[in-house]
Amino acid sequence: MRRDYFELTVEGVGDGADERATPVVRIDFHGPEGLLRDRLSDTEGDLLAAAEVDVAFRLREPLSDTADPEGVVGVTNRYTGDFVLELNETATDVLPFIHAARDSADDEDARYRVVIDVEGERLVSYDKDTFLVYDHEGNLLRSESLIPSGVEL
After folding, report:
1. DSSP string, 41-101
2. 1 by DSSP, 3-state: which?
3. Distance of alpha carbon 112 from alpha carbon 101, whole angstroms
4. CA angle, 81 then 64 then 137, to 5°
5. Could you say which DSSP state residue 22 is in?
6. DSSP code of 30?
7. 73-103 pLDDT, tens per residue?
8. Partner of 86 at 20 to 30 A CA spacing, among 74, 78, 135, 149?
9. Residue 34: count of CB within 10 angstroms of its CB
């Protein structure tokens, strides 16, 4: 599936955002619906639940080398490891989103919502509490990641 089929927007981030509101990452797919639906389905054809998918950001260059390092946002099937989708984004788009999720949590674990639409029509919505960030060499960046308390990686 081509990365340019996807468009990512975020809500609840920035100066005008309500600090208590759950940040939302919206991924809109502009390609063949059957392809995305198949990747988001289990072996019985049911859409995957939130607990069955993981979201991560993988940098393609060091964070400190450029002003706006590029990377890839990936949604994967937790049980098979298969990529459901990938799209190109920059660290300046993704990291503030993770910080906003952290800031909205107070003393609770941070949460955010992933909404996946097909041509503007809702396909799935997932409430998540983990968003892992990896450097360009594949090492986990714990300080940039959103990891619930009590989780060991």
Report:
1. B-TTSPBPPGGGEEEEEEESS-TTTSSS-EEEEEEEETTT--EEEEEEEEHHHHHHHHHHH
2. coil
3. 6
4. 30
5. P
6. -
7. 999 999 999 999 999 999 988 998 888 888 7
8. 149
9. 9
